[in-house]
Amino acid sequence: MKKQWMQMASLVLNCALILLVFWQGARLEDLERQTDDGLEDLEQRLDMGLEEAKKQEAESAPTVRFSQVRVDTASRMLTMDVTVEGAEGAELPADLGFCSPGEPYRLSWTQVHLERQADG
Length: 120
Description:
The protein has one helix and four strands, in the order H-E-E-E-E. The protein is α+β, with helices and mostly antiparallel strands. The longest helix is centred in the first third of the chain and has 59 residues, at 2-60.
């Protein structure tokens, strides 16, 4: 009789353990589904933020124009007017340097400091 009770208790415990395993598996599936949904939402928001940042950067990028380029061959002097335009209130580059094609900008052979004129 004692042996039958032990077998019955063992069977009940095994069933309880199996139910617990299935219940935990269902909870894990729910958590995984919630995590996947959250990750998809986060990815969409990051993509939208990245696109917005790229758009703002493109809108605020300064444009540079060179005009009235003059070369004095006797003195080997290159003279030109440089116009840098950007969006209203945007930070413009403070310096302009010239270098040979393919040469790193940090090795530019002349640099000038730019200043904002009264007309903007």
